[in-house]
Amino acid sequence: MNNILCVNWGNKYGREYVEKLKQQCEENCSVPFNFYCLTDNPTEPYDIPIPTTWDSHENGKFWAYRKLYMFDEDKVNIEGNHFLYLDLDVIVQKDLSYFFKLDMEHPYIVKGWWNDIEVCKKNFAKFKSPMVNSSVMRWDRGQLKKVYNHIKNNLDVIFFTYPTIDNYINHFWYNMYDEENSFMSGFPKGDVYSWYKGNIYPNDMEPRKNREYCKICLFNNSGETNDVEELKTLWST
Amino acid sequence: MEHLKYTPDMARDWKNAIITPEGYLKKRVLDSMNASQLESKLWLVETLIELDIEPKRVALLAGWFAQYIVPLLFDNFRSCEWVENFEIDHDVSPISYKFNKRYKDKNIYKINMRNVMMKPMRMMPNPNLPVKPEDIFDVVINCSCEHMFPMWKFRDMNERYHGKPLYVLQSSNATQHDDHINCVESEDELIEQSRMSTVLYSGSKILSNESTRFMVIGR
After folding, report:
1. Beta strand pairing status for A132-140 and A82-86?
2. In A, which residues are within 8 Å of B177 by CB distance?
């Protein structure tokens, strides 16, 4: 079975984001799937209570790591073999069945094709400018258990050192220096673009441009506050 | 200690190291060679000499290009026979090996790409077997404590294999840099972070870049 997951924790995003994402998936996925939301406020049949095992490590950086509980499918009690994770602030533009047909030799994460790799390399040891973005991830059951265990075994160091999940994954599970031998693969060029940052460096970088030919649009903004109204406007286009 | 020995061998190696990098790497190499970098390493070696410490096998944690500390150790301590630089930065290895080619060629300097806060310096296939002498470090130098998790973790992971080496630790109060994730405000804080029980030296120094550098030496 195919599973599409999202995570909604705290009050950054209201329930309407989950409902909208679910609606977008239902309208844009031609293969059967189950939709789940890992949340600290389960109210709907598709909600799954998010675990709290790592809560005691909250240090201001931990909050986003909550979404990595899903890397242990047993921990979040979801059956099935194929998993697609989507952030709540994405626009689904094409048939998501594409993601369930990918060759799964490696799990996938968004490679930020809009990044200048020289900047990513320069900032690698500074815990800045990761090449990857965890807004969309695709894996098969068990593929990311190794990552889950690595976090579980190094909670204090990871939550202290890496300010974001993307930085953590960039350091340990994605190899921008040798992508052929990387544990995680990046989605191919043009699959996922960024509303605020562009599509492909250096020639297709215009921000706030609708690229209908891409499958998913992200609203990642390097820590800057996203323009919520802008995203909601795009929901209706 | 006021200087390092600029020998013909060093001149040759440094020239080859400095002409290689381009773009952002060139700037990083220049950053690694500023006055403060040298001041802090001279202070470290001078203090070790004052304490009559004779390093033999040195683990250098996050040593970056290590163009100052490696020659300072080999030139000032006849006892020094091995320096191993544990790094996570992919860009470091080729350039550091160029800076220190004379030591690499003699097989007395090595870079080990390893995150020392996640893995011990040596993986022991069987913890019941004795540690090989060439795997034991008697001195651990970390001039980058502000870049990483507190040093108690490293000690926890390594001391069951390496005993109690001498720790030479430096950190900074310069919080304006994104990668300074663990600055301290005093040498006492650095001692506390490393859970050092025997302190041979602790002090601070204001460097050319106007930041305060703290150093503690002990076990």
Report:
1. antiparallel
2. 126
Predicted structure pTM score:
0.91
Q: Supply B104's token pair.
A: 């690499």
Q: What's the pLDDT tens digit per position in B27-64?
A: 999 999 999 999 999 999 999 999 999 999 999 999 99
- DSSP letter assigned to residue A188: P
CA dihedral B186, B189, B194, B199 (to 10 degrees): 60
What letter represents residue B147's amino acid? Answer: H
Mutation target among B85, B111, B115 for the A interface, most CBs of A within 10 A: B115
Fold assignment, A2-188:
Spore Coat Polysaccharide Biosynthesis Protein SpsA; Chain A (3.90.550)
Does the beta carbon of B24 lie under 8 angstroms from any beta carbon of chain A?
yes
ipTM above 0.85, yes or no: yes
Contact: B24, A171; criterion CB under 8 Å: no
Strand order of the sheet with strand A34-39?
Answer: A47-49, A34-39, A2-8, A82-86, A132-140, A108-111, A185-186
Nearest to A88 by CA among A186, A30, A42, A20: A20
